[in-house]
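Bug #77: duplicate submission created two jobs. Keeping one. Sequence:
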Amino acid sequence: MRATIVFGALLAASMALPQAAAQSGRLYEPPQRMRLLEGCMADEVMNGAYCVKKCQEGFRLEMSGPKASCVAVKSDAKYVPPKPEYEAPKTPPKPGAPGR
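Kept job's structure:
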């Protein structure tokens, strides 16, 4: 009975650790895509049927589970999310413009 309680407590604590790491910014999931016949690009690593982007500086790639994750190696490591390349037009298009 006591062993069951201890096991349950350890299981609950181990499940809370990745969530706590993610909340503190010490863990993030890198972008991944399905691998093509040619393989992965230079800034990607092969993980099964997927190509996973390499981690940012201060993080290491952890591929122990079904999804890859980047774990902070340094205490001051900061994750900077990628910025979209698309910029919205400053003025709306004129009525009757092509594509409307």
